[in-house]
Amino acid sequence: MKNLLVIGGSFFLGRVFVETLAQNNDYRIYVVNRGNRPLNINGVVEIESDRNDITTLKALLPKLSWHGVIDFCAYTPQDISNLFLVLPPKNIKHYFFISTVSVYAPTKALPIKEGSPTLTGPQPELGPAADYGYQKLLAEKTMAMHCKHNLIPFTCLRPGIIYGKYNYAPRESYFFDLIRKGQLAVIPDNDLALFQFVSVWDAARIIVLCMGNPDTYNKTFNLNAPELVSYGRLIEILECVTDRAIPKQSMSVIEIDQNRIPLPFPLDSHLIYSCDLIRQVLGFTYMSLIDGMQRTYDWYCKEVETSK
């Protein structure tokens, strides 16, 4: 049996990944998190600890050889370094770091590829999120340094906009809530801003396919489905999956900002990333956005019904 150590794993992508592999008898899964959201999944061992509580983690982690360490919640270089103080490097067969496309520097050279320029510092224009992308990039570099020094194969995954089951961010649910309440959907009058999605199920499947795969060792991959989507196209898809006409109003970006309408996707710039490398290496085919959104909406409806 192969032992997997999951850091995080009680929310969104990590949770779907754990649920997916918990059905496979070839794996024994250990999940480290703070215990705020117990998984309660049969066969999954939950270890309650903050990842940076080195003393507690050393005491609680079993002395095992890890087929894979999948790190969903490292946000700073210190998060990475602290974990390597706890884990004996000789016990790690493959390290996964879940990063983000937010590490890339702004550019007009699209699509953005894995080798495109990355940030050189924080982004003050993003306000509270100013440090997010840069700190994730520094965490990437720290992870690669530790892995290379200790001869541990690593795979770095940079997902774009993730949607699907357990999504706690108000992305697709922002529109689902409007639809359920029969409220007006505001969209930009300029429908040229294009962006991409990746379903949480595809992202989890890619991690599984990369595990122990030498073709993914010491490489970085973008995770984005190839479909280019605008707000107008997204509304068309949502009308299809919900079987409802969505009342909508077009506004300028200036008006949207002035009215503080919390639209979750880019308003006036493209976010387009190359998805070729991971597809070539794995022979991977992403699910269509309409299929993924249908699956997401069905889950959302069940959650709403359960909460009544």
Largest sheet: 7 strands, parallel
Low-confidence stretches: none
Helix share bin: 25-40%
User: How many angstroms separate the termini?
Assistant: 41 Å
Overall average pLDDT: 95
Beta-strand level of the residues, as a percent range?
Answer: 15-25%
Instruction: Give the overall silhouette.
Output: globular
Strand order of the largest sheet: 3-2-1-4-5-6-10
**Which structural class should the secondary elements be placed in?**
alpha/beta
User: What is the overall number of helices?
Assistant: 10
Rg (C-alpha, Å): 20 Å
Helix-strand pattern, N to C?
EHEEHEHEHEEHEEHEHEHHH
- The number of distinct β-strands equals 11
Descriptive terms for the model:
308 residues, alpha/beta, 7-stranded parallel β-sheet, two-stranded parallel sheet, 36% helix, globular
Characterization of this structure:
The protein is of the alpha/beta class. Helices cover 36% and strands 17% of the residues. It has ten helices and eleven strands. The protein has a seven-stranded parallel beta sheet with strand order 3-2-1-4-5-6-10, sandwiched between helices. A two-stranded parallel sheet has the order 7-9. Strands 8-11 form a two-stranded parallel ribbon. Helix 1 packs across helix 6 (200-210) and helix 2 packs across helix 3. The protein starts with a strand and ends with a helix. The relative contact order is 0.13. The model has no long low-confidence stretch (mean pLDDT 95).
Brief synopsis:
With 308 residues, the chain is of the alpha/beta class. It has helices at 12-22, 54-60, 77-86, 132-149, 172-181, 200-210, 231-242, 253-258, 276-282, 289-307; strands at residues 2-7, 27-33, 44-48, 68-71, 95-98, 154-159, 161-163, 185-188, 197-199, 219-223, 248-251.
